[in-house]
Amino acid sequence: MSYADIRTRNESAWLLEKNGALGHGLRHDMRRFDDDDEVDLVIVGCGAGGGTLMQRMARHGWKVVALDAGPFWDPEKDWVSDEAGSHKLYWTEPRQIGGSDPVPLGSNNSGRGVGGSMVHYAGYTPRFHPSDFETFTRDGVGADWPIDYDDLKPFYEHIEAELPVAGDDWPWGDSHTYPHRPHPVGGNGEIFQRGALAAGIEAHVGPVAIPNGRFGNRPHCIYRGFCLQGCKVNAKASPLITHVPDALAHGAEIRPDALVTRVEIDGRTGLATGVHYVKDGVSRFQRARMVAVAGYSIETPRLLLNSTSARFPEGLANDFDQVGRYLMVQGAPQTAGRFDSEIRMFKAPPPEVSSEQFYETDPSKPYKRGYSIQNISPMPITWAEHVMAQGHWGRDFRNYMSDYVHWATLGGLCELLPQADNRVTLADETDRTGTPVAHFAYSLCDNDRQLMDAATKTMETILEAAGADETITIQRYAHLVGGARMASDEQHGVVDGNCRTFAVPNLYITDGSVLPTQGSANPALTIMALTARVADHLATAGPTFG
């Protein structure tokens, strides 16, 4: 796909300044609407889903306002090459957790600010496999989607070109190529390649949403390794630089630091009329013909549950008690191996090399579905968590930390199954606006545990085959999705195959909460592709009832 073709859909990379920064002019001169203006579309959240939808609909001539609870980031001024100093990128508002296997929240799993979680994601952007869309039919677990892979394929291709994505020709799932060739591999990736080859496991470089070379005015990656702390050089893709510039150039407005507390419904028509939000301590209301919620998998169900009314006493679009249910994470065990030579795993993008050889259900195994493996690159503070989890303290702990450059780390992404009782509900605790916060209960099933054990053993095999003289593992989770899933009918989900809520014709959900299953792939690309597909649907249907 040529650059000219890409620019017919999205000129963001060419609207940036020559150093890749979002220019002051675009932000300062963006169109501004009044709360009393009935805009065509108000979007809650400006991450992978909200940012993509805003850009697409602004380009179609819609009057669009996007509200985000966090800041409008300036990478050069706001982001630092420091783990502790980057926690402001995360959603750190109060939340409660529970269940037998609770998921820690607040660090590296939800974003806060324009660009959303993609500001601090690792840049890894694989596609889901065709099997992910029909796991129940194929394997008797999970749920079938109301759409299939072929419905999403052209939008995968569009988003891959716009980000753009770099990587090897990909042999797994629906085999395909990427717009940019793979990046050179650092020491951590070389260990993965060496061990995989010795163990008879197929592995490939990529796919990462980082151009291999200049792309428009975005610079080449300099392999500094701070992808999870925000990319100060703007080489790594996030909506902040890949979709927001084009949206602003086409008349969209972004209101940062605007926390949406409620979606308003007209009691007579049953339609959404806008959203209530708090900005600078003042409660306000933005009128709109259509509302799209893109707050991600904790805040989206929380907002719906808090938007009660006479018509929806149990929460908006919750007639069948589906809102908040089937929330998922991926099992993400991380296994590290020590080598005599210096690895310096912090150099280069955190994920470089991947294997999806174990992605699909293997009938010879006692579990369903599968896992993928990537090399990952924990920075020193995160590495300290690995070491302390093994019980190392005092002088022993210091020895491990001083040996940091000799370790390589692999990470598994295990497809944990959707369960109805893994869900978001409302807690008794309230936030600074007086709105009840989310309570997220999560428990693993036996299949989940078996997958995580299998992934750990495979990673140990790879590292030992590469020559590691010691391995250690820490169990973690990654990637929140679900909580307002799509389905074929309202008794089994919250939205239809076009991400429109069954209960409210002009209310859409365009974020990871609509995913019925998780897959073993990072979800960002799929969220953006789903949203691009929704935008095509809306452009045809018009801004009234969709």
UniProtKB/TrEMBL annotation:
Residues 110-309 form the Glucose-methanol-choline oxidoreductase N-terminal domain. This is Choline dehydrogenase-like flavoprotein. Transmembrane segments: none annotated. Keywords: FAD, Flavoprotein, Oxidoreductase. InterPro entries: FAD/NAD-bd_sf (IPR036188), GMC_OxRdtase_N (IPR000172), GMC_OxRtase_C (IPR007867). It comes from Frondihabitans australicus. The keyword Transferase does not apply. Residues 418-530 form the Glucose-methanol-choline oxidoreductase C-terminal domain. The keyword Endoplasmic reticulum does not apply. One of its GO terms (molecular function) is flavin adenine dinucleotide binding. Pfam families: GMC_oxred_C (PF05199), GMC_oxred_N (PF00732). Belongs to the GMC oxidoreductase family. It comes from the Bacteria.
